[in-house]
Write a structure and sequence with these properties.
- This protein is an alpha+beta fold.
- Among the domains are: 213 residues, no CATH class; 108 residues, no CATH class.
- The protein has 15 helices and 21 strands.
- A hairpin with a 6-residue loop joins strand 8 and strand 9.
- The longest helix has 28 residues.
- The protein is globular, with a radius of gyration of 25 Å.
- The C terminus is likely disordered.
């Protein structure tokens, strides 16, 4: 079957099979990766491409910044390595910010797929590695040359033989060579698995190539986008948003033009480039702008070349969202993650009542480090380590629902379990809890932020590479909703730390006596509310309008006391105390983290009864695992905030 018309049934079956292929590719990367970014947070992408370099299908696992930049990156590889020069066993790599995913810490790996000695497709994958040398994961760099090892488009393997010279170069330039090289091999392995599964699929369906299938899939996606755009209101709308920036506040300005054939987003009027590494290459600007638009107008259309081409993104060179070489770009996500909010400011004018309020948007990632010259001299610097731990504030209030608490939108990465961080570093996370009253007030409350406390188990300092936003300019409400709380970074001793750059947490003799050391206290900004608070007050009562966690509960559950439903959960210690009729029990860690992402607080009681409270309207039933029962708490069986024993009693 080659280059002939495919029936509707053929296309649907092969499409579903293709999705399975790329998802297995992504899961291979997650399961074999060394860094927490990939194996815990899912900060990856994986996809299959036709011989024209067009993305045909992407894995569900992944982030928009990686997926949509990867979709464009393969075309750059083909310019340097044409199809006819590729051989079986070849592997190609780059971390070029302007031809990859926007900064040096993301590796893009491309591998050709051969069937019976003939190239039939390509697989690509990306992930964020823990280190790439240079000044580290900080926005303090002034040029791209400060930020680490720059890998142009190169062959990583030729005919199945690894480029050991390149691998030796990478090992010599990074602080965590085992993790970084491990991730390189994980990327290669996932592409190999994708290739094997695609070839097996082609043999099953008697396909000589995938060109007819890819053309059908991309054309259908393009047609669907055209139909959707034709129904949208036509016109031009402008919106702006001011954020903290580094040396000065940054203005992000977007103009959305909707015509009969495309959605055009232009960022003319935005601030110029920064002297620091918060600049954003156009490829990353395009990735998150397109994602934001398609979330609103085409969430049901598969994301591939046909879908992405329907949204055109432009920005004047030299602006903060179209940074040019040699600008420093490590923290480009500081800008990129804000772009959907700016675009939604435009689309709210075109389609009122369909977009959420502004959110934290910018990830509050704990880039933690210790080592000579950074946190001390010689042995006084403590055990050397570098770790990424992704965390987030809340998402903006939705038009008909509260915002999701501690949920990373638009990045989509998972919050990293504290156990993963503690297992590979001398750190301990003493507290991780929802930040009460942090969500912006309104008829629909903004999602709550979170509070974290981190300490070292050693009598030694450690550092944080901060790149945080929403500290000076918090997220705004929409349609009269209140703003969210601003984020804050400080020490337990009270010293406020800068929101960007390297800060060192010193050892503290008094706290070391309690086995805690000096703690870093991280308050992550929460989301804004939507719709005036007075209307919510009429629905839920004065007390629930004060921003407690319970303010999102449905009016039918008002018999439950807000103070008893307002739940905090801490990571340390694991023993928890509950009130009401739910028996005391231990937290189930895996359930707790899954539920945390979806806005639920979940406990497993000693008698096997599971109790849950939902932050997005009413009590919810949480699916039970085999061997346990799932139960919703009626209003009369609420449980209160947990109590943390003295740390010395752990």
């Amino acid at each position: 079957m080659t280059r002939q018309a495919l029936s509707e049934i053929d296309v649907q079956i092969m499409w579903n099979r293709l999705l399975s292929v790329v998802e297995e590719q992504a899961q291979t990367l997650v399961r074999t990766a060394f860094s927490t970014s990939a194996r815990e947070a899912g900060d990856i992408s994986a996809g299959v491409f036709d011989l024209q370099g067009r993305m045909v299908a992407q894995a569900v696992t992944g982030t928009p910044g990686h997926v949509n930049t990867m979709a464009r990156s393969v075309g750059h590889f083909l310019e340097v390595f044409p199809i006819e020069t590729m051989r079986e066993g070849d592997v190609f790599v780059t971390n070029d910010p302007w031809k990859g995913t926007g900064h040096l810490y993301d590796l893009v790996i491309v591998s050709p797929t051969f069937k019976d000695g003939r190239i039939v497709a390509m697989f690509a994958s990306t992930t964020h590695v823990v280190d790439m040398g240079g000044v580290g994961q900080t926005p303090e760099g002034r040029q791209i040359y400060h930020e680490g090892l720059f890998i142009p488009l190169l062959r990583l393997a030729r005919g199945g033989e690894m480029n050991e010279d390149l691998l030796a170069m990478i090992r010599a330039n990074v602080r965590e060579p085992v993790q970084v090289i491990g991730d390189v091999y994980a990327l290669i392995a996932c592409n190999e698995i994708g290739s094997r599964r695609l070839v097996a699929m082609m043999r099953e369906f008697a396909l000589d190539d995938i060109e007819t299938l890819s053309e059908s899939i991309i054309a259908r996606s393009r047609s669907s986008m055209a139909d959707i755009i034709s129904c949208l209101p036509k016109g031009e709308w402008t919106s702006s948003m001011r954020i903290d920036g580094y040396e000065a506040p940054i203005d992000l300005v977007a103009t959305v033009r909707i015509t009969d054939t495309e959605v055009h987003v232009d960022f003319s009027g935005s601030s110029g480039m920064s002297s620091y590494a918060i600049n954003c290459p156009l490829c990353y600007t395009e990735a998150y702008t397109t994602f934001g638009v398609n979330c609103l107008i085409a969430s049901h259309v598969p994301n591939n070349a046909g879908t992405l081409d329907a949204v055109r993104v432009t920005a004047p060179p030299g602006t903060i969202v179209n940074a040019t070489h040699p600008a420093a770009v490590y923290a480009r996500s500081v800008m990129g993650h804000m772009l959907p909010d700016v675009v939604y400011g435009c689309l709210d004018q075109a389609m009122p009542g369909r977009v959420p309020a502004e959110g934290t948007s910018n990830l509050w990632t704990l880039n933690l480090i210790a080592g000579h010259g950074l946190t001390g001299i010689g042995s006084k610097a403590g055990s050397a380590f570098m770790v990424n731990s992704f965390h987030s504030g809340g998402a903006g209030a939705r038009p008909a629902q509260d915002g999701l608490s501690a949920t990373p939108f638009p990045s989509g990465v998972r919050n990293v379990p504290v156990e993963a961080t503690e297992a590979i570093t001398p750190l301990v996370i003493w507290r991780k809890e929802l930040w009460q009253d942090s969500g912006g007030t309104g008829r629909h409350r903004g999602g709550l932020g979170q509070v974290m406390e981190v300490a070292s188990r050693e009598d030694a300092p450690f550092g944080i590479f901060a790149r945080f936003e929403r500290v000076t300019h918090p997220a705004r409400g929409r349609h009269g909703g209140g703003p969210g709380q601003a984020g804050r970074l400080s020490l337990a001793s009270g010293k406020v730390l800068p929101a960007k750059g390297l800060s060192v947490v010193p050892p503290g003799d008094r706290l070391v006596a309690l086995r805690q050391g000096h703690r870093m206290r991280l308050r992550i900004a929460e989301e804004r509310g939507e719709i005036p608070q007075q209307r919510r007050r009429r629905r839920l009562g004065d007390r629930q309008c004060r921003g407690h966690f319970a303010t999102s509960f449905h009016p039918s559950n008002r018999t439950a006391s807000p103070s008893s439903i307002s739940c905090w959960f801490r990571n340390r210690p694991s023993r928890k105390t509950f009130s009401g009729s739910v028996a005391p029990g231990r937290w189930n860690r895996s359930d707790r983290y899954r539920s945390y992402l979806s806005g639920l607080v979940v406990a497993t009681a000693t008698n096997g009864t599971r109790a849950s409270a939902c932050s997005t309207n009413a009590f919810a039933r949480w699916p039970a695992r085999p061997g346990s029962s799932g139960a919703s708490i009626p209003p009369s069986r609420s449980f209160c905030r947990t109590h943390t024993p003295n740390p010395q009693s752990i």
